[in-house]
């Protein structure tokens, strides 16, 4: 029996103020797969991630994470209770361009906060796990520092540890290196590469084409809210079917 996809999106549509931003998106992501979502500015990439994470509620279509429907109780078709929605949303973790760390908490507290308060983990267990994750991203030595004292690359590595502490089924990255100085980009990409090697399921919006090419199993290209091309990176970056993708790749060189 083949394994259920971790993420399964069917006919997803989303409009803002009557303007369709996502149209009939279908996407399946298998366990351990890395999918890069590319497209020009305004094509709907962030909105897609935000719908998967239920930061935005889709107008139509369905999203299943680990076989469980987001947003709707499948037994009765009603919206999920806030509590049930929170537990399903925790199956997805989002890494934002702007880090979104709690400024009043230390690095260690930032990583421990949600496991203790949302997952109900004991403090000692959460602390042990947080230290392990901070070691993994090379930030254990800063555990007692506050976010303001960290570089952008360091903040993003803490943000990644914080997401991993919730043990999500899929990690969503929304331009995780776009706010960083060029010399800090590599340290965050290295952590992401390690995550992919460890088998994390990841969906990635990025402008780092070389990175997308190196780590992706699947690349999808959005144009005005539709997926107009999807392919393995070898094909996508060397021999795309659409003229639109060809032009996009030329301009991103
Ligand atoms: N909350 C919102 N309210 C109204 N319009 C929105 C909202 N969020 C996004 N949009 C619009 O939806 C469209 C798609 O935006 P989105 O941010 O998903 O694109 P994107 O491909 O991620 O762009 P970029 O690469 O510039 O970040 C844009 O026209 C944007 O202005």
Lay out the secondary structure.
Elements (H helix, E strand, L loop, with lengths): L6 E10 L2 E11 L4 E6 L5 H8 L7 E6 L2 E2 L12 H8 L2 E4 L11 H11 L5 H14 L15 H13 L5 E5 L7 H16 L4 E4 L3 H7 L2 E6 L2 E6 L1 H6 L4 H10 L1
Parallel strand pairs: 3-8, 3-9, 6-7, 7-8
Antiparallel strand pairs: 1-2, 1-4, 4-5, 9-10
Helix pairs in contact: 3-4, 3-5, 4-5, 5-6
The chain binds adenosine-5'-triphosphate.
GO molecular function: ATP binding
Subcellular location: Cell inner membrane
Family: Belongs to the ABC transporter superfamily.
List keywords for this structure.
nucleotide-binding, 10 strands, four-stranded antiparallel β-sheet, 253 residues, 9 helices, six-stranded mixed β-sheet, ABC_transporter-like_CS, single chain, binds adenosine-5'-triphosphate, 37% helix, MetN_ABC_transporter-like, Rossmann fold, globular, alpha/beta
Average pLDDT confidence is: 94
Order of secondary-structure elements: EEEHEEHEHHHEHEHEEHH
Largest sheet: 6 strands, mixed
Structural class, from secondary structure content? Answer: alpha/beta
CATH architectural label of one domain: 3-Layer(aba) Sandwich
Helix content: 25-40%
Written description of the protein model:
- This protein is α/β, with parallel strands linked by helices and 253 residues long.
- It has a domain at 1-91 and 172-181 and 206-253: 3-Layer(aba) Sandwich (Rossmann fold).
- It has 9 helices and 10 strands.
- The chain has a 6-stranded mixed beta sheet with strand order 6-7-8-3-9-10, sandwiched between helices.
- Helix 3 packs across helix 4 (123-136), helix 4 (123-136) packs across helix 5 (152-164) and helix 5 (152-164) packs parallel to helix 6.
- The N and C termini lie far apart (42 Å).
- It binds adenosine-5'-triphosphate.
- The site of adenosine-5'-triphosphate has 11 residues, from helix 1.
